[in-house]
Amino acid sequence: MVIEFYYHPLSPPSQVVWMVLKELNIPHKENLVDLLSEDNNKEAYTAINKYKVVPAIIDGDLTLSESRAIAMYLCVKYEPKDKAERLYPCSGVAEIANFNRLVFRDIDNYQTLLKYLNGDEIFVGTASGPKENLLPKAIAVLEEVEKLLSGKQYVFGNHLTLLDFFVLTTVSCMEVIDTDWKKYPAIAKWKSDLMKLPYFEECHAKGVKEFVELYKEYCAKSASNPERK
Ligand SMILES: N[C@@H](CCC(=O)N[C@@H](CS)C(=O)NCC(=O)O)C(=O)O
After folding, report:
1. Which of 75, 76, 118, 122 could link 88 by a cystine bridge, Cβ 3.0 to 4.6 Å?
2. Atom of ligand 1 at shortest distance to CA of 35?
3. 93-228 CATH choice from 1.10.1200.120, 1.10.468.10, 3.30.70.100, 1.20.1050.10
4. What is the rounded end-to-end Cα distance, in angstroms, of the chain?
């Protein structure tokens, strides 16, 4: 059976689920929900996700939203139980608890960066630029991730996990302000390793590039039209 995947390529949580589908080779159909045309507010989609956001999936009888819930569900259902290096490591309750702690911590970090960038404005057709007073909090997020990654190949130990996808899509939000990644050598090294993933360009880099272009375009429009601020 093919999973119906509802997404937008510029949406970080959509990118996470997309990468999980690709990494686990799960057959799926990609259904674009065009946020810029507000397709997410139309009946056809709100019947699938009443929260009107992407991503969502339909897998047989199950309709599911929330990127974290979807990512974990896909791993629990489709990742071979005897696989040594699991995307969702679950060799014991302490490991699961610690892993989940970082998955949920990443929500706060993602929200901090979105607040700094006013990132949500993108999907309503505006973006007026970062809130400079929140820059120290955004930098603290990058420093936290830098520390998390130092001396490690991946976020959670020495193999690829869901956390790499979540943290990657979080830190990549900072591409819009041309972050100098040389200041964060552990993040830079980790990102350059993740770039080798065969789906990295399609499911992540392309969306980030378009997000950056759109953000800058909206900011420029906003700067030349004070009424939009
Ligand atoms: N907690 C949700 C967040 C989903 C979310 O905010 N999606 C955004 C795109 S990144 C969206 O669909 N926004 C449309 C809107 O708010 O109108 C998840 O992780 O799946």
Report:
1. 75
2. 14
3. 1.20.1050.10
4. 48
How many angstroms does the Cα of residue 174 sit away from the middle of ligand 1? 18
pLDDT tens column, 168-219: 999 999 999 989 999 999 999 999 999 999 999 999 999 999 999 999 988 8
Residue ranges lining ligand 1, Cβ < 6 Å? 11-13, 35, 40, 52-55, 66-68, 123
Output the CATH code of domain 3-78: 3.40.30.10
By alpha-carbon position, which residue is closest to atom 13 of ligand 1? 53
All structural domains of the chain with their residue ranges: 3-78, 93-228
CA nearest ligand 1 atom 16, residue: 53
Which residue's CA is the nearest one to ligand 1's atom 14? 53
pLDDT at 229 over 50: no
